[in-house]
Amino acid sequence: MIPVLPSGRIDEFAATPAYVTFIKRTPDEAMKRVREARAKEIELRVAKERRELISLEDVNYAVGMIASKFCGELAGVAAASTRDLGLREIIQTNLSAAILRFKASLDAVTDDAKAGRPIGDDDAEDEDED
Fold first, then answer.
1. CA-CA-CA-CA torsion for 95, 101, 104, 110, nearest 10 degrees?
2. CB of 1 closer than 8 Å to CB of 22
3. Which DSSP symbol is given to 7?
4. Percent of the chain with pLDDT over 70
5. Burial class (CB in 10 A: 0-12, 13-18, 19+), 67
6. What pLDDT is stored for residue 123 in this prediction?
7. What span, in angstroms and rounded, lies between the C-alpha atoms of 87 and 96?
């Protein structure tokens, strides 16, 4: 890359532009990372436009809305099941406990998703071990 004179010495006037040209042609790591980041950004944008990718906020909103409606439906189960007030109270207590467990699981999954941790059902593993 750098021209050498017949005497074996380096011609400094020709060496400088040759070295600069060599450096410009050699991709450095920072530029490589920038190109990769841009390519990844474009891939994500295209996936989102194709509806192959949706935002975490959209998912949380949809799941929260469905969960809220489901819990609202469960609130009327005890009254619709019996006229016996004692039995109705037992049913409502059990439903309320189930709703709280459901909410805790939903909150844990949301926290895992926001933190970038894998989302798994720990309760399912416990059931398999029994």
1. -90
2. yes
3. T
4. 89
5. middle
6. 53
7. 14
Handedness of CA 30, 35, 39, 44 (dihedral sign): positive
Instruction: Classify 81 as helix, strand or coil.
Output: helix
Instruction: Give the tokens for residue 101.
Output: 């467990």
Q: Rounded distance, CA 2 to CA 12, Å?
A: 9
Phi, psi (degrees; rounded to nearest 5) at 4: -115, 135
- pLDDT, one tens digit per residue, over 67-100 is 889 888 888 888 888 899 999 999 999 999 998 8
pLDDT given for residue 1 in this prediction: 64
- The Cα angle at residue 67 between residues 61 and 69, in degrees rounded to 5: 105
Find tokens 């309760």 and name the residue: 123
pLDDT at 129 over 60: no
Report the C-alpha dihedral over residues 73, 74, 80, 84, rounded to 10 degrees. Answer: -160
pLDDT of residue 89: 92
Q: 0.85 exceeded by the pTM?
A: no
The residue among 68, 101, 52, 98 whose CA lies nearest residue 109 is 101
What's the CA gap between 67 and 103, in Å, rounded?
Answer: 8
